[in-house]
Amino acid sequence: MTPEAYDWGSIGRSLDADGNAVLPGLLTAEQCDALAVLYPQEKGYRSRIVMARHGFGRGEYKYFAYPLPPLLERLRHALYPWLATIANRWNRQLGIDVQYPDDLDAFLQRCHQAGQIRPTPLILQYGAGDYNCLHQDLYGEHVFPLQAAILLSVPGRDFVGGEFVMTEQSNKSQRADVVTLRQGDAVVFTVNQRPVLGRRGSSKVAMRHGVSRVRSGRRYTVGLIFHDAR
pLDDT tens digit string along 34-86? Predict the structure, then answer.
């Protein structure tokens, strides 16, 4: 499906309530398979990260180099304007004096002028026993508050376990969500913090995301982050 085909009012309400929302069937099975087979290739990446070396968990991922694969380039640009509307509303609620432009290229220019020039879209590979610790993808001064992850593999066929997990922590409570995804589904979620309405107006709650342990098989995911890195 194309981003404009989704009910963005419903997506916004889900993000407001839970910090995440699922976009079912964003990619076809054929598109997922075409992206997953890119992982072993040498070209097209700027770096490879082995998670255990950095205390990030187990498994590995690669950051794409520019130019991005055409499908990911199109998706990144197509999703951004819808998410920028939500991100700007959140900043107004929190009294944050940052306005995100309507166009991704304009936002990336802001990142690049601040020295954040390295592309952040990535592809992740997990095998049996692998997992991703709870974390936030910040990378620099300019942080777009929403990102997306797309599951490329088929749960129950290609892998078992490996659920997408989000946690929320405020001064008063903690909460964890397990988000169920099928092949081609995307989860849009909070990078860092989101507003929660209380008796005295909106306050910030901290969000983190990760992946539970893969019990068997192999799991591939693509991550779309909208700010670039230093």
Answer: 999 999 999 999 999 999 999 999 999 999 999 999 999 999 999 999 999 99
Question: 3-224 is classed in which CATH architecture?
Answer: Sandwich (2.60)
The amino acid present at 21, given as its one-letter code, is: A
User: Is the model's pTM score more than 0.70?
Assistant: yes
**DSSP labels, 61-118:** EEEEPSSPPHHHHHHHHHHHHHHHHHHHHHHHHHT------SSHHHHHHHHHHTT--B
Of 38, 40, 48, the closest CA to residue 68 belongs to: 38
Q: What are phi and psi of 101, to 5 degrees?
A: -65, 160
DSSP string across 138-188? --SS---SEEEEEE-S-BTTTEEE--EEEEEE-SS-EEEEEE---TT-EEE
Query: Which residues are registered as beta bridge partners of 159?
Result: 155, 217
Tokens read off for 66: 């520019």
In angstroms, the first-to-last Cα distance of the chain is 32
